[in-house]
Amino acid sequence: MKICTIIGARPQFIKAAAISRAIAAHNSLMPNTSRITEVIIHTGQHYDNDMSAIFFSELEIPEPKYNLNIGSGSHGLQTGRMLTGIEDILIKEKPDWVLIYGDTNSTLAGALAAGKLHIRIAHVEAGLRSFNRLMPEEINRVVADQLSNSLFCPSDIAVENLRNEGITKGVLITGDVMYDALQFAVSKTKKPSKIFDSLNLQPKNYLLATVHRAENTDDPKRLINIMNALSKLAESEVIVLPLHPRTKKILEKSFFITKTPSTINPEHRTLNFEHSSLKIIDPVGYFDMIALEKSARMILTDSGGIQKEAYWLKVPCITLRDETEWVETVEGGWNILTGADKQKIINTVQYFKTPTEHPALYSDGYALDKIINTLLERNLLQHD
């Protein structure tokens, strides 16, 4: 059986790494005739070394056979270039399955290319919905699920979302492969990360923040509200902010960043990043990021993956969005939605009460086995 895996962004590297290791483990136990051939196609959506290459080395992902080097661009331009490149590769490779992950433009392009070529599609992390069609990720999810033949869902709610859209065939609850990736990372980071010394951090004595979603970065009012909140919190808290290349580019283009301590002035479009307790750093590798998450007092993020990691690590999370696909974390009280409301962000940080209960969510530890076994079984059925 041959699988073409489409990846292009940090969350996909993490999920694909877990499945690639599981494929290698499967192949080590099987004769050549029963092995799985995986062809990795990297779209180059995340082309910065800190967002791409370092994850391949850390997570032990096999070197991509193809790298499209697409880079940044508008949604249409980026997706169109990916679609052309992926289509050419699929025609050449003739895989049994195309494996797509999550909700990025790489996901959409992979689904469209495979669908038009009548190649079966397996979607890992299917059925998630924010019900906000203004988010490009929501459009990508909906289209990818409509085209997929095997839909691997992390939760009962994801299955229900698909059922409500009339999708029932090929749906399976597997749990979330990011849990398996997290366990791998934790096992690799038993020694203290050097990042704590370099940033002069003490465990549980800092906040960790990330901002990269288009709904926040492309809306000047939302972005400056979030930065205002972080600036205010930095008056009494240590905050670590690994700055996503996309966010950095937008801030540098859209705002004048002062070099002397001052308050942020929205009227003059001025942002100050010079608080001694607001530590703006370049993106970090996966292991360092997990170490930062695990030891944070609280996490503020608009990332779906980090919301889950925070939950599994039992770290309170504030989500800088108006809705989330990971509703169970909110229902459990470990995740609070604040959107880009400055005062709500500040108040939530200051008055958050950690829940006493922590139900198991999204994984029973067998997600990888379920996905690989299902693909093998359905491949055999297709050829019988």
Task: Describe the model.
- The chain has a seven-stranded parallel sheet, sandwiched between helices.
- It has two domains: 2-176 and 363-383, 3-Layer(aba) Sandwich (Rossmann fold); 187-351, Glycogen Phosphorylase B (Rossmann fold), CATH 3.40.50.2000.
- It has 384 residues and is α/β, with parallel strands linked by helices.
- α1 packs across α16 (367-383), α4 runs parallel beside α5 (136-147) and α10 (220-233) runs parallel beside α15.
- The model is unreliable at 258-270 (pLDDT under 50).
- It is 45% helix and 15% strand.
- It contains 16 helices and 15 strands.
- β14, α14 and β15 form a beta-alpha-beta unit.
Chain-wise SSE layout:
Layout: E1 2-7, H1 10-29, E2 37-42, H2 53-58, E3 66-67, H3 75-93, E4 97-101, H4 105-116, E5 120-124, H5 136-147, E6 150-153, H6 156-164, E7 171-173, H7 177-188, H8 195-199, E8 207-210, H9 214-217, H10 220-233, E9 239-242, H11 245-254, E10 256-258, E11 270-272, E12 278-281, H12 286-295, E13 298-301, H13 304-312, E14 317-319, H14 327-331, E15 335-337, H15 342-351, H16 367-383
Parallel strand pairs: 1-2, 1-4, 2-3, 4-5, 5-6, 6-7, 8-9, 8-13, 9-12, 10-11, 13-14, 14-15
Helix pairs in contact: 1-7, 1-16, 3-4, 4-5, 7-12, 10-15
